[in-house]
Design brief:
GO terms for molecular function: natriuretic peptide receptor activity; peptide hormone binding. By secondary structure, this protein is α/β, with parallel strands linked by helices. It is built from six helices and seven strands, in the order E-H-E-H-H-E-H-H-H-E-E-E-E. The strands form two sheets. The chain has a five-stranded mixed sheet with strand order 1-2-3-6-7, with no helix packed on it. The protein has a two-stranded antiparallel sheet with strand order 4-5. Strand 1, helix 1 and strand 2 form a beta-alpha-beta unit.
């Protein structure tokens, strides 16, 4: 079963699956597509809800053993770390928002890389004598392109699709915390 929902909804779905004996039977695997993961402390133990009962938390912990989470891979390079620090600084100074332990979403860095890609394609189009209003030419200049962005190497294929990196998270049976099992 594939799930793409907020963490509390995923938890409720898994608890319902537990009630239907779908967890312990070994016949079902649940995949969670997590769009805004940052491997924060809360997402390391998504089965635990502080204001829930100990019994439901224990059932949820058991239910999460049948869950694998696919999420965007968080970059681990200096450019990303510097960018994250700057985003957090601006968020606090201009918008009075504090991230705390929360990481900057990989979607924010992907948008930044998209603007870089647009700039590269626009410059390439103009250098060939093209027009800045020729959207088709600019888009075609984005295809089959590789460049270094905030997230690392950015690869755009012949169809204009970004070849993205993902991480597969699984719950460690000893610590009961989610961790990156592999990157794809």
């Amino acid at each position: 079963m594939v799930v793409c929902a907020n963490p509390l909804t995923v938890r409720e779905i898994l608890l319902a699956a537990d009630e239907l004996n779908m967890i312990d039977s070994g016949e079902y695997v649940f995949f969670n597509i997590e769009l805004f993961s940052s491997l924060n402390n809360g997402s390391l133990t998504p089965w635990y809800v502080g204001n829930d009962t100990a019994e439901r938390n224990e059932r949820a912990k058991n239910a999460y053993s049948a869950l694998l989470t696919v999420t965007a891979r968080e970059p681990n390079n200096e450019a990303y770390r510097n960018f994250s620090v700057e985003v957090k600084r601006v968020a606090e100074e201009k918008y009075n928002y504090t991230f705390g332990n929360e990481s900057v979403s990989t979607f924010v860095t992907a948008f930044y890389d998209a603007v870089l890609l647009y700039g590269l394609a626009l410059n390439e189009t103009l250098a060939r004598g093209g027009n800045q209003s020729d959207g088709t030419a600019i888009v075609k200049a984005m295809w089959n392109k590789t460049f270094t962005g905030i997230t690392g190497d950015v690869n755009i294929d012949a169809n204009g699709d970004r070849i993205a990196d993902y991480s597969l998270l699984d719950m460690d049976p000893e610590t009961h915390k989610f961790k990156v099992y592999t990157s794809i």
